[in-house]
Every structure is written in structure tokens, then in C-alpha cells.
Design a protein that fits this description.
37% helix; alpha+beta; 2 domains; single chain; 31% strand; 3-stranded antiparallel β-sheet; 8 strands
Length: 169
């Protein structure tokens, strides 16, 4: 194999080499000195070719949509469900005792408690009054008030709110 390679080299050396075309040396030197600029032009042509392809734009749109979805998902505030008011349903002319829990941090000697009746619900014994207030002694901890309510009109669902309390220190 070594002799075959040597024979091939000798045969190639014997072949006549053609003369270069006129201006070949000048063009070769000019290309050699412009090489960095030619590389930059080749790169920009590659980017132009990439920008002209529809696959590039589909991929960019898909990537943008994924980025926007992740941003919205990660940066949105955690939504907490709104507290639902306690509700009771009463039939026409039905009376029922409703327990209301008042949790007091300390003992209150002369606390004012106010109840506001809404809709067609009335407190038994106070049918013509919407807001009822009274003073009571509240112990530290849980205090349960039992309120007798009745439905005076059409059957409906009634929302109750937390009783309002005032205390003169």
C-alpha cells in the first residue's frame, strides 16, 4: 500500500498543471483580505433566510403564547373564594330559633348588641322593627344567643350577618 501511494504521487507530479486565468491572483488576494466581511454577510443571509420561513414564525408565536400563559399563571394573585353568608330557609309563617355565636376576647360587662333583620324575616315579638339593640353581659370566649325568627311574607332564603357589638370601655 505504501508503494501504491508513492506511485500515485509520482504520477500526479508528472501531470501538467494548467495556467491560472488572468486576474486570478488579484481576485484570490482580494477574497483573502475580505474574508471577515464575507463571513458576516453569510451569517446575515442565514438569519434572513430563517426569518423568511413560516416555521420560524409559528415557533415564535407558540413560544410567546407559552411564555404569556406561564406568566399569567405564576403572577396572578391567588383568588380566594368570597365568604358565603350563612343562610336559612323559612316557609311562610314558620318560626325557628337561630343560634348566633359571639366570640369575645375578654369579658364585657355592658356590651351593646344590635341585630338587623332583612327581607321578610322578623324577630318574634319585634315584628314591626328592623333593627333591635340591647345591652348584655358577655363572658370571655364563646357566647351563644338564641334568636327566635319567623317568616312573615313569601318563602325566601335569608342571609344573616354578624351581630354588631359596641362596648364602652
Amino acid at each position: 500500500m505504501d508503494t501504491d501511494s508513492e506511485n500515485l504521487r509520482q504520477a500526479l507530479k508528472r501531470l501538467p498543471a494548467p495556467e491560472p486565468r488572468p486576474g486570478f491572483v488579484d481576485r484570490a488576494l482580494a477574497n483573502a483580505t475580505r474574508q471577515p466581511a464575507a463571513r458576516a454577510q453569510g451569517r446575515s443571509m442565514g438569519l434572513a433566510h430563517l426569518a423568511s420561513r413560516w416555521e420560524t414564525w409559528i415557533g415564535a408565536a407558540f413560544g410567546g403564547a407559552v411564555a404569556a400563559a406561564l406568566t399569567l399563571l405564576l403572577l396572578r394573585p391567588l383568588e380566594q373564594p368570597a365568604p358565603t353568608p350563612m343562610g336559612i330557609s323559612l316557609a311562610l309563617n314558620e318560626s325557628r330559633a337561630i343560634d348566633v355565636l359571639i366570640d369575645s376576647e375578654r369579658e364585657l360587662e355592658d356590651a351593646t348588641i344590635r341585630i338587623v333583620a332583612t327581607g321578610s324575616v322578623v324577630l318574634d315579638g319585634f315584628e314591626n322593627e328592623r333593627e333591635i339593640g340591647w345591652r348584655a353581659h358577655l363572658e370571655q370566649g364563646s357566647n351563644v344567643l338564641s334568636l327566635p325568627v319567623s317568616e312573615s311574607g313569601l318563602p325566601m332564603s335569608v342571609s344573616t350577618s354578624t351581630p354588631k357589638m359596641e362596648h364602652a370601655a
